[in-house]
Here is the input.
Amino acid sequence: MTQGNGMGSHTRTAGANGERPLLAPGIHGEAVPMRDWSRDEVDVCVVGAGAGGGVVGAKLAEAGFSVVILDAGPHWDPLHDFVSDETASHKLFWTEERVTGGKDPVELGSNNSGQGVGGSTVHYSMIAMRLHADDFRRRTLEGSIAGADLQDWPLTYEDLEPYYEEVEQALQIAGPVHYPWQKRRRRFPQREHQLNASANMLVRGCAALGIPVAAAPVATLSAPHRDRPPCVYRGFCNYGCSTNAKSSILVTYIPRAIRAGAEVRPNAMVARIEHDATGRATGVLHFRTGPSSGHNGSELFRQRAKAIIVAGYAIETPRLLLNSASPLFPNGLANSSGMVGRYFMIHAGHQTFAKFPERIGQYKAPPGLAITEHFNRTMPDVDFSCGYTVEVVGPHVGDFAGRMSAARNLWGSALRRAMFDYNYYSGLGIVGETLPRLDNRVKLHDTERDRYGLPVAHVLFGHHENDQRLIDHSIGKMTEILRAARGEDVWGVNRTAHLMGTCRMGSDPNASVVDADGRAHDVPNLFICDGSVFPTSGAVNPSLTIQAIAARTADRVQAAAARGEL
Amino acid sequence: MENPLRSPYPDYNVLDKWSSLDWDDQTRDAVSRRLFNVPEIRFFTESEKRTLEAVVERIVPQPDRRQDERIPIVPWIDEKLHGDRRDGYRYDGMPPQREAWRRGLAGIDDTSSAIFDGKGFADLDGPAQDEVLRRIEHGDPPGATWTTLPAGRFFTSVLCVSIVKTYYAHPSAWSEVGYNGPSSPRGHMRIWEDGVDPWEAHEPPDGPAMTASNKAGDAER
Here is the structure.
């Protein structure tokens, strides 16, 4: 058959319809031949080439499925596109308009949203942590909390454990031999990194207070691995790694996907998911831009697919489902429960800085090389449930100046003088669990449209009082640690990190959007595979869990295909 | 009397490393545009430009630099607005960025006029300008604009942060705070406490000395 290969049984003739294959950027500046699936009905179309989409797309391609992965942004050439400069790196972030509101509006853009192949992993801090067994059953452990809607996950830690191991191997996570908060686990694939001055500061402060502390597991190489070199501690991790040491999705799973016959289509903004009269998804309509596409974004293209996996992260995923409303699905695709966009969560991300007698140079090396999960549990003697992880942060000069100015209402000569001490500051930040609330949500904005005419996301967020108590507690602890490490002149800035919820997974179709396999309750051949499926936020950086879920989803899609359900 | 604006790193100029292993081609391209291709004003009106220049002088004053050495700020904010390059979000109640800037700058003159007898912001002296900006920062300024534009939000999340980040995006600002700046492909070796790679900013052993631009400023005075 010329189009519509059978699930998992397509023939790999190079170049669709006899045309020359496409070329994609390789990770060493070379051009890599790539299949062109644009005229075919593929087995699987993935929307979003980040932590979720890259992993699920690569695994399915390697399993023999025909796969297209679309991303709204460019396909980066890391050695040539990534700049050692904060300002010149804004291209890595989602800069299309969104409107943010509610009682505690969340800062978006560079704070938590990527655009381009690799998604946010291109600029994430690489802290690669697992959730704990307790995180999958918060409702059972905490009970019902008024004003929140804690749920157990339909997955257990044991379900995800092999997938955590799989992605830790694929990303070659570097971590300590002894990790205090996961006693029974295999060694990390690579040895821990040398700690920088900021990480030593956290170690010193914790040691003085008797708080356990450890080198953070991070997704950047501490030793050569295949065609990638170890980290040289240039410290621009949040602006794109220009040496390929960082194990982003861009340099790990994406090359695998292309090698296995997937097409990775950049600058492709998906406008809606189409379906047939029976309610099965049939493909996606997308706009194409960028020099390599030869299109200017004025016309819609159709990519037909037997199954669709949405992996746009917790704002763009619900936005796409809501923008895909139709007479059959008037409230948006996969939204008979009304839960699409609901339970939007972030992590509390308060940061606390202090000035030290030693020169720190917080711009050197990966920003988060040490952590303590000591407070990542419901503690017996406090007035709040759930907990937080304390990590080291390391903003470069522009971000640091912006944070200090805003936090201390500092400007004028006083700001310039305070900045003379930039090299002596070091800081801590938390990843704090926030409770899921129905009213925290992503919806379509009533009037605002993007450049394609699509309604933009309207993000509403307000903290539960439990979140606020947790934040207050963490400020006290971070201040104690900084002071114990000989820090002075302590100040803090209220921030958030990460995006989760909005398409929560669960077993009840009336109260969740997808099942434990990431499969939409309403649409049998539609899957969601990113941070939006989290029923609760946990208190660790979410990327590794998103990747583990994606690795599992790939297996579940394969199983469903084998059963003839796709 | 305020302490003078003397950098602790008087002998350090990040641009001395232009041809070193710290600066790859793409970084040189990006920073040379910032140094040598300062754009013309295309978005702001003459009066908006005058007001914003006066605001910039209060947020990041540069009395220690000759006029031709000062870090340009207004042209880069103007360029962002001319191209309407967004940040990826705006707060509920804030208009899109172009409108926010136009109305906010008008509001600064409104407040100035309300407090100081009809005078525009650029015509006030420094302490009076600071008073206007503090009132806006605190969110309770007089002036019709601010009934529909949240003053504190505009000051903190639009006005001040844009000026501060533009200032600290310039190599002259990197040099004065001892920031290493670009570092690809060389990276770093001495990442521990008090560790300073040979190519990083060093403080003179006997404390900060006078910078060349401070000396020039003193001579002028």
